[in-house]
């Protein structure tokens, strides 16, 4: 399904008080909304992904996969600041007539969720059968389930947390330092900060994978090399790959948004906020994840009222949620009991 666009013509106020006059939201849908409007699977995407979930989460989403357009109405919306259809730093600032670049307002996870809610209202989706996401996507899904608990019936949180950790913030700040170390980042051009973005992605990759990942996939065949190592080539390749499809300004603002994640802000405490989740919730952690350690998912499991917990064993670390789609499918099937039409009727092993 091609990208669709919803244009909100009202005033959109961000959490920091900044008011945007109108807002464009890009999104993809797959399948057909049934007569009861209760077959909605809503996906919140991660940091540099987009709304085409059938492209980047193949194996879990697809014509013959667990979440398929035959049984479900699948929707994924591009988040604020991301350059794939929703308002971003590369779009034109109506006040100046020039692209925002570094004058783009800082957004939070709550702002992203507020935009999701507008889109859901526009599509007349009053009930979401399943809301899910991993990493930054999981942060959005959790926040939405707290701010709008009656709309979310079932929830899957993968490799995510209740508030972003000092460790995660430090990784993000290191990446932003890399962006700022590239003088072109301040040039306010579409490709500004490209070298910094390449370096930032290389830093990020170390948090997405593990020592074991590199030891298995980037190990040299012999003992004679003194340069041109596989691991070096891999970091350069992955950095350039992101540069070819992304921009430094969106990356800067999205890492800031991730840092803002704290469900306890303005709600008394994190525990009180998590207690507001009404959805039947499956929390999935990855044992080898160094960016979102499994302790963070165990915390969610302990404090969300109707929750179950599962471990995903992957040597890919944090990125395992994007790669181990068959294992994810097996976990989801084993926890959520469905009827003959694929409708979720029960969550197994509720704590």
From TrEMBL:
What reaction is this protein's catalytic activity?
L-homoserine + acetyl-CoA = O-acetyl-L-homoserine + CoA
Q: Describe which pathway this protein belongs to, using the record's wording.
A: Amino-acid biosynthesis; L-methionine biosynthesis via de novo pathway; O-acetyl-L-homoserine from L-homoserine: step 1/1
Q: Which domain of life is it from?
A: Bacteria
Please list the residues that bind substrate. Answer: 201, 319
BP terms from Gene Ontology:
homoserine metabolic process; methionine biosynthetic process
Indicate the segments forming the AB hydrolase-1 domain, all copies.
40-322
Q: Which GO terms describe its cellular component?
A: cytoplasm
Q: So what EC number does this one have?
A: 2.3.1.31
Alphabetized PANTHER family for the sequence:
HOMOSERINE O-ACETYLTRANSFERASE
The record's function comment reads: Transfers an acetyl group from acetyl-CoA to L-homoserine, forming acetyl-L-homoserine.
Q: What is this protein called?
A: Homoserine O-acetyltransferase
* Organism listed in the record: Mucilaginibacter pedocola
Encoding gene (name): metXA
